[in-house]
Amino acid sequence: MTARPARRTASALRVLLAAGLAASLAACSSSAADDTTADAGTDPSAAPTAGAEAPELRLGYFANLTHAVALVGVDDGTYQEALGDTTLTTSIFNAGPAAVEALFGGAIDATFIGPNPAINAFAKSNGEAIRIVSGATSGGAQLVVRDGIDSADDLVGTTLATPQLGNTQDVALRAWLADEGLKTSLTGGESDVTIAPQENSQTLDLFKAGQLDGAWLPEPWASRLVVDAGAHVLLDEKDLWPDGDFVTTHLIVATEYLSKYPGTVKKLLEAEYATSEWIAANPDEAKTLSNTVIEKLSGKPLSAEVLDRAWGNLRITLDPIASSLQTSADHAVAAGTSDETDLQGIYDLTLLNEVLAENDQEPVDDGGLGAAGK
């Protein structure tokens, strides 16, 4: 990775942090008075403000282009610079359920992840374990298939892959097939279509070998099957959503960590914001940097054709697109991968909106599912 892009991102970060410091200093005189009258019963996880910082932040993400804000910002040092004395350690996962297991097991404090594993984590913990604190990516998921499959009816008797049972693409596939009148099974029982959750690299190999008929995958894996293995797109997930806008990746934090170390979480969000701004201003460089990191993590870079195709299917955004989350939850219930759950309280966008305000950006909305209303 070249030093030039890293310096540019770091420069943007320094401007961001300076803005945040100025805002904090401007608020000091009034906040001191407010502290004396604050409601002592307020839930600290519901409306955290910048404050305590952790000795370490353990962050998870995937070697996917849908996690570009992590790929770029972690590798070029933006995240560590923002965190200051807090040590950043990272873990790489293939799919969301594995990341949730790590968070539940105390191995990580925060992770970039898809909507359905976040919903499952919230549901399994009775709404206590996690909060969504920011968005990351919209788009970048497709159902790609072999020749001879041109409609949903052609899928009867086929085997399709997803990254992991219960992950976002797994749920989306099961829900779409159900809408098309096709049965699937979670246990290998009677079905019209067999779904085989597995690692993305294995999916590519098996598709090339003719042992899979297709897969619903995030980028860059959808593009890899198209470009490297001759698949074609049966369905682009964005076509299922109003204006093509839906959350693919967002950032969750363990509620206990958020409550205890809001200062660290805010710095994490400042780093994500700085990285997203740099990506928006330098899309070609960001695309190349993301590919460099994918090569470091997976051992092989994406071809230029795959990279261009995959990158064009993504939109980097810190807006978590909360309006799409309830639909994702409904899909999971219909697919049988999650029980029905009340999502009230799953979002806490307080710190993100502080960062946005300090940079003269409009706030993002929690769709009425914020922690403050829990």
Protein described:
The protein is α/β, with parallel strands linked by helices and 374 residues long. The protein has 2 domains: 3-27 and 43-140 and 245-373, D-Maltodextrin-Binding Protein, domain 2 (3-Layer(aba) Sandwich), CATH 3.40.190.10; 141-243, Periplasmic binding protein-like II (D-Maltodextrin-Binding Protein, domain 2). The chain is built from 14 helices and 11 strands. Strand 6 (159-162), helix 6 (168-179) and strand 7 form a beta-alpha-beta unit. Helix 1 (3-37) packs antiparallel against helix 10 (262-281), helix 6 packs across helix 13 (325-335) and helix 10 crosses helix 11. The longest helix is centred in the first third of the chain and has 35 residues, at 3-37. The termini are far apart. Keywords: Cell inner membrane, Cell membrane, Membrane, Signal, Transport.
Describe the structure concisely.
This protein is of the alpha/beta class and 374 residues long. It is built from 14 helices and eleven strands. Helix 4 runs parallel beside helix 5, helix 6 crosses helix 13 and helix 10 crosses helix 14.
Trace the largest sheet across and list its strands: 2-1-3-10-4-11
Identify the quaternary structure here: single chain
The CATH topology assignment of the largest domain is: D-Maltodextrin-Binding Protein, domain 2
**Number of strand elements:** 11
Question: What is the first-to-last residue Cα distance?
Answer: 44 Å
Q: Tell me the strand percentage band.
A: 15-25%
Principal-axis shape equals globular
Question: How does CATH name the architecture of the largest domain?
Answer: 3-Layer(aba) Sandwich
Helix amount: 40-55%
Query: With helices defined by DSSP (H or I, 4 residues minimum), what is the helix count?
Result: 14
Q: Give the structural class.
A: alpha/beta
Number of domains: 2
Rg of Cα set: 21 Å
Assigned CATH superfamily of the largest domain: Periplasmic binding protein-like II
| SSE succession | HEHHEHEHEEEHEHEHEEHHHHEHH
pLDDT averaged over residues: 88
The low-pLDDT segments are 1-11, 17-48
CATH class of the largest domain: Alpha Beta
How would a crystallographer describe the biggest sheet? 6 strands, mixed
